[in-house]
Amino acid sequence: MESVFRTTGRWLRGNLHTHTKESDGRVEVAEAINKYKEAGYDFLAVTDHRKTVDTTDFTTPGFLTIPSIELNGRDPQSNFIYHVVGIGVTPFEQEDREWIGPCQEMIDKVRAGGGVAILAHPYWSGNDVNDLMNLRDVCAMEVYNATCMRHGKERGEVYWDSLLERGKMIWGVAVDDTHHYDIDVAAGWVMVKAAELSTSAILAALQAGRFYATNGPAIVDIEYDAQEIRVHCSPVTQVRFIGRRGSGRSVIAQPGSEITAARVKLPRSPYVRVECVDRQGRTAWSQPIHIG
Ligand SMILES: [Zn+2]
Ligand SMILES: [Zn+2]
User: Fold this and answer.
1) Which ligand places an atom closest to the C-alpha of 123?
2) Residue 157 alpha carbon to ligand 2 centre in Å
3) pTM of the entire structure?
């Protein structure tokens, strides 16, 4: 797998989960989009519940809006609720009868509409890992969902690792899931390496895992050879190399200091993913890298 940090292209900052007054967000579409423009974002997916809002008029040469949606459903057999975000879909609305049905139906609907499917906040939803294992065509899951902090359930690493442990390769995204525009904006985002600022280039990068997730720190480089794996990042207090089961290792800065690089012996694992954690606990999450 080619390293995202060594491929050509531009780093683009985006939020993949946003609500407006078109569903249960607190501001109108125009204001929502302006907040992200002002915050220096390159792209935004407005993902109102159950309908795609037309945001094409807000796209400018330096700011891209991607037609998107959040589908809500409940599996009648397991009784679990599932939220699926569809990025880059042909605009549609979710019918009332489609509220009830397995998660796979929502994913299939996103895929049929040409979009990329992301499993939203599995921890907040209380999803079951065994159910998630059976899902097909899911590009990513939210490893960080800022608005779920209200319920103490913003981080979903254990779900992610449980899937990776069992061989399900799935990418991780960080998102705002913006509802409250005073505190949710710019709380979790993705840095995508894409050839250009266009929907097709961003969708291709998401599918290929050419991005990382963060709510603060930046990952500058990750490289590895047969012996070791090395990371460069913005100043952090801890770099975690996470592999399967007991493999992997953390590199921790001396008390009161920070590090911008770390290296460890290559873990005995089919994959490794990297977390760079700063003084405030903010984290950058790399995608899992196949090393086995
Ligand atoms: Zn949701
Ligand atoms: Zn949402």
Assistant:
1) 1
2) 19
3) 0.97
**Residue 261 forms beta bridges with which residues?**
232
Contacts of 282 (CB under 8 A, 6+ apart): 214, 215, 216, 217
Q: What residues does each domain of the chain span?
A: 10-213, 219-290
Q: Is 3.40.50.2300 the CATH classification of the domain at 10-213?
A: no
Architecture of domain 219-290: Sandwich (2.60)
In this predicted model, what pLDDT tens digit does every residue of 119-175 receive, in sequence order?
999 999 999 999 999 999 999 999 999 999 999 999 999 999 999 999 999 999 999
Whether 112 and 84 have beta carbons less than 8 Å apart is answered as: no
Q: What is the DSSP string of 38-89?
A: HTT-SEEEE--BTB----GGG-BTTBEEEEEEEEEEE-TTT--EEEEEEESP
Gap from CA of 223 to ligand 2 centroid (Å): 34
Distance of CA 215 to the CA centre of its chain: 11
Q: Which ligand number lies closest to the CA of residue 177?
A: 2
Chain segment 237-268, per-residue pLDDT in tens: 999 999 999 999 999 999 999 999 999 999 99
Contact 249, 241 (CB under 8 A): yes
Instruction: Tell me which ligand sits closest to the C-alpha of residue 17.
Output: 2
